[in-house]
Amino acid sequence: MNRDAFETRLFAVLRWVVIVVLALVTLFPFYYMVLLSVRPVENLLADPGRLWVGLSEWTGRTYQEVLGSPEAGGQGMLDLLTNSALVSLGTVVLTLLISIPGAYAVSRLRFAGRTQIHFLFLAVYMFPAIVLAVPLFVLFTKLGLRDSLPGLMIVYIAQTLPVSIYMLRTYLSSVPVSIEEAALIDGCSRWQVMWRVTMPLAVPAIMANALYVFMVAWNEFLFALLFLAEDRSNWTVSLGLAQLAGGIEVPKTVLMAGSVVLTVPIVILFYAAERMLTEGLTSGADKG
């Protein structure tokens, strides 16, 4: 066997070894979390290190406790999931409605400072969130937006809008201008060109942005704690999970069930939009 053939076979084997190791490192924590969430707490205490249990030992009581209302002795996570879904979906819709025209203007229209403005969008992230927390708390208290889901949505929109515009601008810059020029010659207005010609081509990038915004709004904790802590009926699921983690009387199996409830929606959305997410993140790399 010559050297080239040996190296080819060696790297082929090493590639699969690396893939398997990375898959185990990534999937095992999630698997163990799900396993703990379906085990009765007495069985877990008797054999905490067990990595496999039969279906006969599974229980749904942990999820009943997590999702059940506080009046029924549960943790009320179903209501918190609803709040998180409303905030996250509302943030996605409003962010895209603002960022799509903004990104199109930055990538297509000519105005003073056009080449520098996208750096100004990213300058927002030079400031840590904790620096903005106190001023926003005071401002939203005076405006009457504290302890409300719409107020939290405004914070999330301001947090995600700069990066959303930056990502969309990168993608739109790769769309050939000649396509839009042909539509303009055919009598379309600039607004019609944006929505009827350019946006259908930018669907992968829009989906990538939507998923990014949704993940930020779904998982965010600091501002949710700051603005919603006083009224539990407005809590998001991240606050509910933090309460479970800090409760001494809450079994770890219930905590793991809450973690699964928090994680599963993001996993489902990611895999459902994986192809478009990949296209949206890579297609804008080659600018025209």
Provide key terms for this protein:
single chain; 288 residues; mainly alpha; MetI-like fold; 14 helices; 74% helix; 0% strand; globular; MetI-like_sf
Indicate the topology:
Elements: H1 3-37, H2 41-46, H3 61-67, H4 77-108, H5 114-122, H6 129-143, H7 149-172, H8 177-185, H9 190-201, H10 203-219, H11 222-228, H12 237-246, H13 252-272, H14 274-282
Helix pairs in contact: 1-13, 3-13, 4-7, 4-10, 4-12, 5-7, 6-11, 7-10, 7-11, 8-9, 10-13, 10-14, 12-13
Tell me briefly what this model is.
This protein folds into 2 domains: 3-64; 70-287, MetI-like (MetI-like fold), CATH 1.10.3720.10. The protein is built from 14 helices and no strands. It has helices at 3-37, 41-46, 61-67, 77-108, 114-122, 129-143, 149-172, 177-185, 190-201, 203-219, 222-228, 237-246, 252-272, 274-282.
Structural overview:
By secondary structure, the protein is mainly alpha-helical. The protein has 2 domains: 3-64; 70-287, MetI-like fold (Orthogonal Bundle). 74% of the residues lie in helices and 0% in strands. It contains 14 helices and no strands. The longest helix is centred in the first third of the chain and has 35 residues, at 3-37. The chain is globular. 28% of the residues are buried. Mean pLDDT is 83; it is low at 281-288. It holds the Pfam family BPD_transp_1. Belongs to the binding-protein-dependent transport system permease family. Residues 81-273 form the ABC transmembrane type-1 domain. It is a multi-pass membrane protein. It is found in: Cell membrane.
